Write the structure tokens for this entry.
Amino acid sequence: MGIKTYEEMNELEIDILKEIGSIGGGNAATALSSMLNAKVNMSLPKVEILDFNEALVNVGDPEEVVAAILVEMSGELGGIMLFILTKEFSDEILLRMLGKTKEDFFELEEIDSSVLMEIGNIVISSYITAMASLVNMSVELSVPQLAVNMLGGIMSVPIAMMGQHSDRIMMITGKFKIDGKALNSNMLLLPDVESLNVLMKKLGVE
């Protein structure tokens, strides 16, 4: 029959999403490792069902300025993928790729934005491709969008988009570590309820 809200998910279904997220995260880390020529790991994913205020606080300081790459998913898996880069994480990327950092996030040059966008696009694509392949789902990704804003402003976009269906959102999150250095970053997968039903049906979990 399927679920109508995130809260109806049982422990088995949440464990399955953690496992799928772990495989997606592993592929994303491998892609980033190849681009940076560095050892990259991603933490074990957390699966949380939170109201909007909890979700915002859970990700970080709402007033911290961050960069974010957002991709919309459609097809058999719908929802949003959001890659949030703190100044620390962005500086690490720009230093390794371009040999420089930026004093101010709002002063990114075109080449800086292009590098961050390309990194985000490859990481997100690797994550989703691994997931889709694992469960044999057809997923289409939109053209990535890059934004620099306070975290609260960044998070308001997926919350508004997902909030059309519920006052809570489900987040599968994970953080990156580059050459053993833990960098405050977040990769958020926010699937819609309908997609979760398709996913569980494909896996024989009903």
Notes: The helical segments are 11-36, 52-59, 87-98, 110-135, 151-162, 193-202. The radius of gyration is 16 Å. The chain is about 45% helix and 25% strand. The beta strands are 40-42, 46-51, 65-75, 79-85, 139-141, 145-150, 168-174, 176-178, 181-182, 185-191.
